Amino acid sequence: MKSIYNTKPPLYYDDRVKIKTQIEKIGTKSMIVHQFIYRENDKTLCNQARFVLVCVENGFQSTPIPSNLINAFQKGPVTPVQPPEK
Questions:
Q1: DSSP states of 56-80
Q2: 33 and 81 in contact (C-beta within 8 Å)?
Q3: If 0-12 CB within 10 Å is exposed, 13-18 middle and 19+ buried, where does residue 31 land?
Q4: Contact 9, 44 (CB under 8 A)
């Protein structure tokens, strides 16, 4: 897994958050997932992360993503990631 994240304004222990997760791209053996973390009370974007997830089997060799998972993800709202408003 590879991740890139950007920290914006801080979150505090008792802050409630809303996490928006989008699948940016589904490949044959990997997918790119983008998450946006907002402070719930004022809708401030506090963090975002982008992950490259690779499907692996025993021995950590990459393997194709099972078709039932690809179908399940494609049924959901897979939309291009829009940069958050500043």
A1: B-TTS-B-PPPHHHHHHHHHS---P
A2: no
A3: buried
A4: yes
